Structures are given as structure tokens and as C-alpha cells.
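Lecture notes, unit on protein representations.

Consider one protein chain, 160 amino acids long.
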Amino acid sequence: MIQAFRIDERLIHGQVIATWLKTLGTTHLIVADDKAAGDEMRQRTLKLALPANVKCLIKGVEDAIKILEDPRCSKMNILLITGDPQNAQRLVQAVPGIPDINLANYGSITKPEGKDKISISKMVYLDKEDVQAVNQLIDTGKTVFTQKTPQDPKKVIGRL
């Protein structure tokens, strides 16, 4: 079962490992990101700091969707991460079991040159394309929120 869904341009990093995996009791981490899936060196780097008890798959979005549709996933404690709102939208449209969406860290690394960005938190900066994708996520009826760590309060995002 997908316990949490996180949009984070850094994908796997210390914050995810130190707080989210432990708090959620995650046994399986699935990264749905086409760029990372196509870069073997990046995959190795992302997996480097993972605890031995957490299984990790880094797949393109379409392959991740196929995996998440497998009934065996319902017995797993899964943290699902993708790198941007557009991929999140693809995942939400295809996978019915996705819970609410944590728009955690996005926009300062992958799109540093973006113009006319809006900031919805200290860690989230959206351009027009991102705003459109986030609004479409909200329109699905899922709650979209920002939450840096499990100990921080959730800040629900309304239509932008």
C-alpha cells in the first residue's frame, strides 16, 4: 500500500532517509522518475545511503505505474517519490491507491532559471507549467500540501 506520496526534486536524500522512512515504517521506496531511471550512476548514488531493510526501485513513470498496479503492492509499506508535479499528475491519473500529495521540495534545483515563479513555501517554487499541474492534482480531489518533515505541520495548498 502506498503510505505516502512525495514530490521532491532531490528524490532520495537525508531528510527522506532520516525522517520519512522511519516515521512511516517504509519497507519499499519507489522512485518514479524518467531521468533517474535512465541514469545508472545516479541510481547508484541515490541508493547509497538507504538502510539495508528498505528495498528501492527507481523506474520511469510508466514502469512505476505497472509495478504499483500489481496486487502484491497492497501488502507493502511504500513511500512513492517523483521529481515534479507533471510526473505526479501522470501517477495520480493512473494509480487509484495514491494518497494525498506532499509537494515537499521543488523548483529551486531543477528549474533555477525559471521566470515568474511563485513560492508556496521555503522549499517550493512553481512556474506556470507547474501551477497548472498542481491545480490539476487538486482538481482530482486529493489534498495537496507541503510538509518538510513528519514533525512539521501540513500546509494545505488551494488552487493557485
